[in-house]
Amino acid sequence: MRITRKAAFAAVAATSVLALAACSSGGGSDDETDDAGINTETSINIAWNQPFYSANGNSTTGNATANNVILYLLNSGFWYYDADLNLVQDESFGTYEKVSDDPLQIKYTFADTAKWSDGTPAGPADLLLEWAAQSGKFNNVEAEYDEEGNITNQDALDAGVYFDAASPAMALVEETPEIDGDSITLTYTKPFADWSTAISMNLPAHIVAQRALGIEDAEEATDALVAAIQDENVEDLSPIAKSWSTDWNFASMPSDEDLLVTSGAYEITEFEQDQFITLTASDTYEGDHKPVFNKVTVRYNGDPMGQVQALQNGEVDLINPQATADVKTAVEAIEGLEVESGPEGTYEHVDLQFANGGPFDPATYGGDAEKAKKVRQAFLKTIPREQILENLIKPLDPTAELRNSYTQVAGSPMYDTIVEANGQAEAFATDIPGATALLAEAGVPAVTVRLLFDPENTRRQNEYELIKASAAQAGFDVQPYQVQTDWGTDLSNATSFYDAALFGWQSTSTAVTDSDANYRTGATNNFYGYSNSTVDGLFDELQVATEQSDQEELLAQIETELVNDAFGVTIFQFPGVTAWNPEKIGNVSKLTIAPTIFYGFWEWTAGEAAAE
After folding, report:
1. Are 76 and 93 in contact, with CB atoms under 8 Å apart?
2. Quick check: 499 pLDDT over 70?
3. CATH code of domain 10-16+27-56+256-344+577-606
4. Crossing angle of helices 234-242/205-213, nearest 10°?
5. Residues 6 or more apart from 520 whose CB is under 8 A from it?
6. Omega prior to 575 cis, within 30 of 0
7. Which residue ranges does the record assign to the Solute-binding protein family domain (predicted)?
8. φ and ψ at 419, to 5 degrees?
9. Which of 59, 292, 308, 410 fits a disulfide with 164 by CB distance 3.0 to 4.6 angstroms?
10. What does the pLDDT look like over 593-608, one tens digit per residue?
């Protein structure tokens, strides 16, 4: 399971009461239907808050909800979640099974209908490439960045092997997976609790190899890629890693059509930077998840009330904006809409930097770890969590409560036990006198904190103002970090230049080892230099724990360590509002995890007004 680095975006406070504008209607005739049974005149427009910027959702750079919701429509895989979050195998793409417990071995077999949109069969080489990229086995150099998030050691990266990814699960597969015909078998060095979701399909291996190795023929290129991995050929792995890591990062329509090859129901056919992306049904897709709409256009608008206005005007047909009380009031006042509200899978939190030379880094105090921890503890005691909840969230959801777990959603089976054990509610209750006393003990009564957050997000702006005012009472001067590129990129690339980050994590899976990527030393989503050998060891135990009681105990111990280290603080679970025009789209079923409103696109229904 992966957790995304970006979650819901901008919110604008407004009190507008809107009315639904009239929508044109019309139906498609039989001669408007293609050979796959799709009405080629049907289309749908969906509003989303952040633009797509990478087709490599498994890379550290591309691992974001903004990308993964689009990739959900573009690519197939071995598994997906149903509406009840049960894991289901997509047998039209392939099957997988555990063939051995000792050692743990998982065999993946590709179906005949698994194909890339250029006609090339999907196969074991594609999964082998993902293992090579995510296992970390071949990396012999790491990226270094300047204050603007630009890589400063590109020559070293080009000369070495650098896959921009890391997976604790794939790190357990130390032996090169074995290929046998249409199957590939992964052998783990020890049991792994979440083996069923440990790896997913991503990029076409043949195109990565063609671009990296200069081989024109797809089959020959694929064979060369497999050989490079099996033989650990650094000379070939170096350009393969570079292609995998960088070539699929694009924020507008790429000139090379090879970058648009997909394995799923849709292909990208139009892409205007920061405006919209249009997906058209693939005429080569043979899987079970056949699209209902011939075209899906996702229009980008970070303003929640702007999304409501667009829905009113008929410019979009489905929205899931960052919710505020005003957004909910506005959509509920529009006649003819379907509206649903409820908690989402994203949670708000603040994380602190441990190794950037800033106020929370022991190096700043001559290596005095205890002094740095007191400063961290003091700052977290100034985060006005209750005030944020009361002012910004309860007007939308009066039943909302503080989230006090780093790993569990309130109401989940393990939440109460873990919260009782970790002590976060007590340790980080807003306590200005306690924060002031801690700073006095540390001998640093005045501290400047550079806070990273999305500057276009009104809710986050409001949170920042509340945090700044509260922290000032204890001697902290909280300043907004000046975003150099976009805040999500800076989150991982500009870590030396901010001291704390305010944002949301959104889950794409229910795997219990999910949080490993956030808190393990050097893990994919650990952007802060946090390192605790006890936590690392507990995650090692969690990976092999198959009983819920054992998982609960281990997670409770991990969270207790995070609280004791003053890693950061959780605030609230995101409330959500979804609204759509039933004349254009029906059978919308939103998941609490990604892909949220895009879930089950093959089960949507097209209304009478769905034709262009």
Report:
1. yes
2. yes
3. 3.40.190.10
4. 110
5. 168, 526, 535, 536, 539
6. no
7. 97-509
8. -65, -40
9. 59
10. 889 999 999 999 998 6
Residue 610 pLDDT: 62
Prediction pTM value: 0.76
Residue 6 has pLDDT above 80, yes or no: no
Beta strands in 336-446 (DSSP E): 338-352
Query: Are the C-beta atoms of residues 352 and 379 closer than 8 Å to each other?
Result: yes
Topology annotation, domain 76-201+204-247: Dipeptide-binding Protein; domain 1 (3.90.76)
Q: What is the CA radius of gyration of the chain?
A: 24
CA distances from 220 to 17, 126, 141, 230 (A): 61, 14, 28, 15
C-alpha to C-alpha distance for 175 and 463, rounded to whole angstroms? 47
How far is it, in rounded angstroms, from Cα 63 to Cα 6?
A: 8
- The residue with tokens 């050998």 is 533
Q: Containing H/E element for 106?
A: strand 104-110
C-alpha span between 516 and 526 (Å, rounded): 9
Judge whether 449 and 584 are in contact, CB under 8 Å: no
User: Among all chains, which residue has been given the structure tokens 């990814």?
Assistant: 165
* CB burial of residue 178 (10 Å; 0-12, 13-18, 19+): middle
d(CA 57, CA 42): 28
The amino acid at residue 392 is: L
The answer to whether the beta carbons of residues 194 and 169 sit under 8 Å apart is yes
- The CA distance from 579 to 601, in Å, is 16
- Nearest-CA neighbor of 541 among 573, 575, 516? 516
Name the region of 37 (left: φ>0; alpha: ψ -120 to 50; beta: rest): left
Burial of 92 (C-beta count, 10 Å sphere; 0-12/13-18/19+):
middle
Cis peptide before 239 (omega within 30 of 0): no
Pairwise CA distance, residues 532 & 311, whole Å: 48
Other CB atoms closer than 10 Å to residue 320's CB: what's the count? Answer: 25
Cβ contact 355:529 at 8 Å: yes
The answer to whether 527 and 517 have CB atoms below 8 angstroms apart is no
Residue 553 scores a pLDDT above 70: yes
Indicate the domain borders of the chain: 10-16+27-56+256-344+577-606, 76-201+204-247
pLDDT digits (tens, 9 = 90+) for 406-415: 998 887 788 9
**65 backbone φψ class: left, alpha, beta (φ>0; ψ -120 to 50):** alpha
Cα separation, 112 vs 123, in Å, equals 9
- DSSP for 548-561, please give it: HHHHHHHHHHHHHH
